[in-house]
## 1
Amino acid sequence: MGHMPLVEVLLIALALSLDALAVSIAAACSGRTAAPRAGFRLAFHFGLFQALMPVLGWLAGWRLAAHIEAYDHWVAAVLLAIVAARMLRAGFGHEAAELPAAPSRGLTLVALSTAVSVDALAVGLSLAMLRVPVWFPAAVIGLSARAVSFAGVRLGRCLSTRFGRGAEVVGGIVLLLIAARILVQHLS
């Protein structure tokens, strides 16, 4: 088996962390991640999913690559769009009681974590095809996503405090733009 240079692993980890950063900022803009534990949960789960997905992709190997590539972008885009719609609804003044309790809990957390880590699954598949061990890259990817997500939550909280519901609307729009970018990137 070959190996991957550390610089390449770090660049991949940072690139994969960008969606987690944007989603962390958007989730924190909702104002429902004000408690430190909520920010920790969000960052922890984003990092965990980002670390596990390359391992799952690597284990799946080249046999499943064609099947997963056919729809991974749709899954990520739909999950992000659902969460974005909920944020937009809250941002435009609908009762918070109609929305999920917090983006750092339950199915919303699982949906966000899955959506930001689908690309990591593809990285794992690529590593398997290159016959590169996955353990070190997966750990670096997970730690990077966790650190970047935590920073995103902190930034999002500042924006939320300063801009209120408007920040939640912007966060929803950001999630929709990420979903659109995923679709455009994979469909073109």
## 2
Amino acid sequence: MAWMHCHIARQHAPPNERVAGIPLLLSAIVMKLLAKNAEDRYQTAAGLTVDLRKCLTEWESHRGIEPFPLGASDASDRLMAPEKLYGREHEIETLLGAFDRVVTNGAAELVLVSGYSGIGKTSVVNELHKGSRPVARPLRVCKFDQYKRDIHTPTWPRLSRASSARSLGQSEAALGRWRDVLQEALVRTAS
């Protein structure tokens, strides 16, 4: 789970920051290849090839690479749905603000997201798993279906199912702390 989180959320250091002498534009091409959002990456091998050949030509003739817009010749022959959310900046910033407060203060916070079916509530919440913010504290997400009101499913099992996969990726020490906290809470609840 930790590897998956790193792959999804953490931004790589640009190659020119890791190794001196790598041209800035070549580093930008690598970062474009590693972009988290699919629409920010090269869409075709042909587009990548054009940019790499242009870099090679510049390097061979000038021993440097003049800046040029990446992906100018990169056009996919297939229609792809973008992963980026448009028009939801306010809602995403509200959630990220709550998340940042929890990380900074250490106090738990409950955020409820409501709205009509199909308007993108889940997509907005899933934005917390993207980007450069590391998930330093456990984030629990629980979804309730408005059409299944008559089915009694307690909140605790829903939350525990949602978080168990993430918890399994933690170290033994972290799991031990969670085990102790849960055990203490269960003992208090039972008495």
## 3
Amino acid sequence: MIDTIISYGHKLPGIHSEIFLAQVGGATNRIANDATAYPHRDIQFVMNVHTRWLEANDDAMCVDWARDFYRATKPFATGGAYMNFISEGDDSVESAYGDNALKLAAVKQKYDPDNILRTNLNITPS
């Protein structure tokens, strides 16, 4: 994984792109997986890739780099996702919430049955 990050870090598509790694653990990991919406309490690190650019003619290069990097690092991942790091259309809500997605859908059904709060990566009411 480290070798892959270094390799892709040397090939960042532009000065506005970055690979963000953060250590988690401690208090985060002392909470039960089903106690909050966020279930990934057994991880030690999280990675977020920011691929940004200014010129439209860089679209393909930047998107291709990000997708290639995602594919190269996916074998090292747990399969979960942190909701704030998901790009719309690139992953599912279920990967962020795991088994908690059903409980969250029930909460959504109770408080927002008409799905008014739907402009983000959405949990559909059950």
